């Protein structure tokens, strides 16, 4: 349900899965700088192997790139904006969802943005100036999903944005940020990948709109058990039909169902082992 809350100048809590994601992203960024920046060949190879390369994903099934690209960033400004947005908006979503489901939502958006990137590269690559051999990096897909989720769940929550001394509702703020990101992408020759990252916002909307309240894991388990139960019901119906046909064909021949010699042996055994008050156990 949409929630309304007055504006606040306090920072959100820095804990849980959001803190872990920010620390991992920062660790990866500085590790790449320290260990690979001095060697250009290795530095580029890291981005080719772990960045999102549509050609490698599509042709060579480097599926890990659908996730690992989100932990790589081009420069300090890139990672700073993404991690700040993750902290400001992701902490509230984690409080709302819980840690496990927040991670599920975040990486659902990350993978969704990657799939959109691959799809656009091979369908509209020339028009959008996207190359299947050019790696895409950054957590923007997950961040746009988090922004969309915050605006969707808390549309009327008021937020103060420094340095402006007035509050703005989350739905307007999120819309403005997404439009700015889109305009920035269209304005630069190397920003087309950010358009594809907006696929994270699309997948965030799909997650919130169509998945059950308990998340993707619950939906898949319910779907699995539903299919399994439907299969068993179908098998029982088929067995019932066969049994009905069999009974109709042999209803005039009861000896086909009873072995008379075995029945006599059973009755004699019952008489010998039955006590005066019932069965002897």
Count of beta strands: 5
Structural class: mainly alpha
Content of β-strand? under 5%
Distance between the termini: 63 Å
Biggest sheet: strands side by side, in what order?
Answer: 1-2-3
Please describe the biggest sheet, giving its number of strands, its sense, and whether it closes into a barrel: 3 strands, mixed
Mean pLDDT: 80
The total count of helices amounts to 12
Radius of gyration: 31 Å
N-to-C series of helices and strands: EHHHHHHHEEHHHHHEE
Briefly note the CATH topology name of the largest domain: Rhomboid-like fold
CATH architecture of the largest domain: Up-down Bundle
Number of domains: 2
CATH class of the largest domain, please?
Mainly Alpha
Give me the CATH superfamily of the largest domain. Rhomboid-like
Q: Main traits of this protein?
A:
single chain, 281 residues, mainly alpha, Rhomboid-like fold, three-stranded mixed β-sheet, two-stranded antiparallel sheet, 69% helix, elongated
Descriptive notes:
With 281 residues, the protein is mainly alpha-helical. It has two domains: 4-210, Rhomboid-like fold, CATH 1.20.1540.10; 223-275, no CATH class. The protein is 69% helix and 5% strand. The chain contains twelve helices and five strands. The chain has helices at 16-36, 40-50, 54-60, 65-68, 76-97, 99-128, 140-153, 170-187, 192-197, 199-210, 216-250, 260-273, and strands spanning 4-5, 156-160, 167-169, 274-275, 278-279. The strands form two sheets. It has a three-stranded mixed β-sheet with strand order 1-2-3. A two-stranded antiparallel ribbon has the order 4-5. β4 and β5 form a beta hairpin. α5 crosses α7, α7 (140-153) packs antiparallel against α8 (170-187) and α7 (140-153) crosses α10. It starts with a strand and ends with a strand. The relative contact order is 0.10. The model has no long low-confidence stretch (mean pLDDT 80).
């Amino acid at each position: 349900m949409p929630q309304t809350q007055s504006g606040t100048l306090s920072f959100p809590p820095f804990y849980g899965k959001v803190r872990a994601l920010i620390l991992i992203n920062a660790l990866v960024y500085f590790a790449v700088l320290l260990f690979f920046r001095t060697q250009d060949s290795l530095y580029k190879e890291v981005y080719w192997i772990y960045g999102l390369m549509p050609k490698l994903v599509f042709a060579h099934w480097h599926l890990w790139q659908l996730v690992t690209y989100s932990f790589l960033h081009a420069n300090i400004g890139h990672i700073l904006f993404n991690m700040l947005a993750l902290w400001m908006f992701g902490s509230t979503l984690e409080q709302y969802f819980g840690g496990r489901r927040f991670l599920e939502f975040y990486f659902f958006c990350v993978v969704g943005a990657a799939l959109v990137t691959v799809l656009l590269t091979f369908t509209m690559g020339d028009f959008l100036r996207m190359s299947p051999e050019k790696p895409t990096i950054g957590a923007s897909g997950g961040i746009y999903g988090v922004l969309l989720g915050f605006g969707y769940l808390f549309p009327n929550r008021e937020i103060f944005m420094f340095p402006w001394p007035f509050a703005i509702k989350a739905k307007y703020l999120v819309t403005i940020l997404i439009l700015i990101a889109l305009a920035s992408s269209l304005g630069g020759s190397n920003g087309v990948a950010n358009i594809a990252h907006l696929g994270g916002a699309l997948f965030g909307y799909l997650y919130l709109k169509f998945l059950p309240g308990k998340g993707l894991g619950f939906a898949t388990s319910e779907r699995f058990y539903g299919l399994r139960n439907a299969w068993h019901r179908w098998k029982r119906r088929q067995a019932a039909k066969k049994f009905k046909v069999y009974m109709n064909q042999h209803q005039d021949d009861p000896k086909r169902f009873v072995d008379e010699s075995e029945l006599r042996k059973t009755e004699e055994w019952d008489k010998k082992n039955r006590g005066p008050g019932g069965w002897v156990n």
